[in-house]
Structure formats: C-alpha cells, structure tokens
Specification:
- This protein has 298 residues and is of the alpha+beta class.
- It folds into two domains: 70 residues, no CATH class; 213 residues, paralog of FGE (formylglycine-generating enzyme) (Alpha-Beta Complex).
- The chain has a four-stranded antiparallel sheet. A four-stranded mixed sheet has the order 10-9-8-11, with helices on one face. Strands 1-13-2 form a three-stranded mixed sheet, with no helix packed on it.
- Strand 8 and strand 9 form a beta hairpin.
- It starts with 28 loop residues before the first strand and ends in a 6-residue tail after the last strand.
C-alpha cells in the first residue's frame, strides 16, 4: 500500500527517491518515511502520533503463513452425484458444481499456517494435543486457533469446492481413505503405553508430501492426514470443533465439522494449525517504520 506523498507502508515498494531497506522474511525490515507535511498528516491519520519514534508494522502475513481474503458463505448446497458408502453417505466420490450462495456472505481476511502444526514441510504434524493445548501453542507464537468459517474458506476457496483440489474425491491427491485399525483406548490413556499405541496406529504423511493436496489459497493438507482443532464459532455444544478429517475412510471435506468432542479430548489422529489477524504485530518479521528529514535529491 502506498500512502500520501510517497509514504510506503505494509511492505509496499517505496518510490525510487524514498530511502528504504529491503523487506526480508528472515529478520526485521524497515521503511524510512520522509517527514514532509503531507507525510506527517498521513501518519497522524494512521494513528502514529510521533513520527520520529519507530513504529512496528507487519509486512503482510508472517513467514510460513498464507494470506486468505474472500467471501465466506454460511450455507452452501453441495449435491453428491455418487457415494462411496451409500448407506452412511459419509464419503462422496464426486460432487456436482457448487450452487450459488443463497445467504449473505461474510468478507474475511486473515493469515493461516501453510501446514499443520508445527507448520514445517517434511515433518509429520503433531498429534495427541487437546483443544486447550492447541490454543496455548498458537498463543505462544502470537497466533490463535482458526475459526471454523476461516478454516472452511481457506480450504474451499471462492469456488466453494467440496475438496480443496476439486469436486472429485482423490486418495492420491490427499492422505485419505486408508484402512482404519481399531485403536486400544486403554493403551492410549495409559502414559506408559501411549506412545507405542499411537505409533502402531499412525498413518500420517509428512506435511506437504502430496503436492496436489493444496487449497486454492495455497494451504496444504487441509483434508486428510490429521483432523484439525478449530474454534467452533457457534460455541455449541463446545467451543471446540474438528475440521478436515484424517487419513482414515472418513468425511475428509472442507465443509463438515465434528463437534462431538470437548476441549479436553486428545487422540492419535488429531492435530491443529494456527491463524492470525492480518496486520497484527509480528515478533519475527516486523516492519520498522521511522521518519527522517527530507533529503534533497542529488
């Protein structure tokens, strides 16, 4: 965004005659704003009352997060053309093109982790964390759990796709529909045997292992691999919700949400990812905005 009289903010490239350091994802970046009267007025309107003091601003989303901006539709009719399991109607092999939104849309703009936590390609996502623990981990990084509508928008995109990769279900695109072993919940509940039982059940892929499993916004592994904790915006019956499904033969779509588990539940196939508000202060990659007197061009 370029402001008045050549003021460059939020990572925009400044005019050629405006001194500025180059933004970097690996450390702090700065934009130097000449203290012309117009620029001082612009800074004042932006709430920056002392132009000579450094001001922390972000340059968009932090590293390893994707920006999502679009219109979320609270209700979308999706018609399944062919079910893989006609009796339970859990897994749809192919959907008809999504119908138009018949309700008021909600415009959203936010940042979301590109991968399931720990948000690092090549590493398996973390499991066996409660909703409360997921909230705490995200907060420790200056982030938060995604709201369920944010998660849905990041998965389905503006076309409101049933799967992040399209209308036809694909076990090749994402890590889904693998055989489901029977878990021994007593072994999982016992700290002495938990790790071994989770390892026996585990069928996770490393994050980003499947190039086709990416949403229209560039977010990886949103369906399959592990279920993901989200903030249930309806707060009923719990504050917690699970989105995306996991590697087993389950829903593995963008829209559905499981609300049967409370905030203290943890299991072998449940992980999470984090979101943040766009423009929130970033401790890892801030933009340092300062002001200096005008320097005559040479």
């Amino acid at each position: 965004m370029v402001g008045l009289a050549g003021v460059a903010l939020l990572g925009a490239a400044p005019p050629a005659d405006t001194p500025a350091d180059s933004p970097s994802d690996e450390g702090p970046s700065s934009v130097v704003i000449p203290t012309t009267a117009a620029n001082q007025s612009f800074l004042a309107n932006a709430g920056i009352k002392t132009p000579t003091a450094p001001v922390m601003l972000t340059t968009g989303c932090p590293a390893a997060m994707m920006e999502v901006e679009g219109d979320y539709c609270p209700f979308v009719e999706q018609k399944c053309l062919r079910w893989l399991d006609p009796e339970s109607k859990m897994r749809c092999a192919e959907f008809a093109p999504t119908s138009e939104c018949t309700t008021h849309v909600q415009h959203k703009r936010f940042c979301i982790d590109a991968y399931e936590y720990p948000n690092q390609p090549g590493q398996k996502p973390l499991v066996m964390k409660t909703w409360h623990e997921a909230v705490s981990v995200c907060a420790s990084e200056g982030k938060r759990l995604c709201g369920d509508s944010e998660w849905t928008l990041a998965c389905e995109g503006q076309e409101r796709l049933p799967y992040p990769y399209g209308y036809a279900r694909s076990a090749e695109a994402c890590n889904i529909d693998k055989p489901h072993p029977d878990p021994n919940e007593h072994l999982i509940a016992d700290p002495r045997t938990r790790d071994a039982e989770v390892a026996r059940l585990d069928q996770r892929d490393p994050s980003g292992a499947r190039e086709a499993c990416v949403s229209p916004y560039g977010v990886h592994d949103m369906t399959g691999n592990v279920d993901e904790w989200v903030a249930n915006e309806a707060n009923h019956p719990y504050k917690s919700g699970l989105k995306g499904g996991y590697w087993g033969p389950v829903r593995d779509r963008c829209r559905p949400m499981t609300t049967a588990h409370d905030e203290n539940f943890a299991f072998y196939q449940i992980g999470f990812r984090c979101c943040s508000d766009l423009g929130a202060p970033s401790p890892t990659a801030p933009t340092l905005v300062t002001a200096q007197p005008d320097i005559p061009a040479t």
